[in-house]
Write a structure and sequence with these properties.
With about 325 residues, the protein is an alpha+beta fold. The chain contains 3 helices and 21 strands. It folds into 2 domains: about 130 residues, Kinase associated domain 1, KA1 (TATA-Binding Protein, 2-Layer Sandwich), CATH 3.30.310.80; about 100 residues, Tumour Suppressor Smad4 (Sandwich), CATH 2.60.200.
Length: about 325
Amino acid sequence: MAKKPHKYVNNGVALDTVLSIADLKSICAQAAVESTGDLWNGTNKIVESESGDTWILYVVQGSLRSWAKFMTFTVTMSTEGGRSTLKTDIVTYSTTQTTVMFIPVSPKKMVVRHVYLQFINKVANTVRQADASARVAINEGEWMPDPSLPASTSPLPSAVAVASPAITEPQREQVELAVTPPPPPPPPPVTAAPSIPDPSPADESTQKIQRRARAPRWLVTPHGMTPIPLASPIVIGRSPSDSGDGNVYLLTVPRSENTVSKSHARLELLDGGVVITDLGSINGTILVGADDKLIDCEPHVATAIPAGYEIELGDFLVSVELEGSVQL
């Protein structure tokens, strides 16, 4: 039986532009340089493997010591009537999955997918800036059709047209109901309960206290591990060390998670929210939203974690949530 393709295998970009194929090749070359997990150590480097007049084969490889090929993808181009097209396709890829006693306990992750998404987004954004008439379609979701441009029988507009998702009539009705809900019914009349005199004499030595609202408690949950309260700064890694302030909780992940650095990242509270600081890790720290949007955390710079985002330390997932509430 054939192996089932990964849910992100159709991710890619398709575009139509007045730029030439030579211009598109130059844009791709620059995007390959900028879409690298770790420029200093050469990790997750995008390298041109082969090329022709209208195509390029790229390899996303590992460190300079291993030369592991984690992914290969193609960029194909064509030109007709004064306009050029470009399309990317994933050819081969690697996956990783956490197992316990050979039993999978997590979904399969496509290795270096975030580097590939950086590449296609950089190409798309550069083309949009250079050509206002460009049409661009990006697929970053799960099991969507291959990214393709909509058919057009009229000349392209002179300005960029940003198409919003189509909303069917039932969807519009739901949106309207959500915006203008019916007023709630009036509350029932409240009848004051009769006061009951205190039979015991007042104790003048007892002082009445004023209750204070308790601060919300944040929980940090590494994948497959017990949640940890974020009461003080937490340093996460395979063998984390204290930075010297003496008030840091050292959270050790399994040593088998070899994409996590020894001291990978630091979590702490700031202005009622949670921020994360990458500590110069090899594979970087990525914030991943529910809509597959990515935020690269700049090393040694505190980055706020938006609502609905998970943390990727290399290929290891960490979630942060308020106790008794839904995940951030």
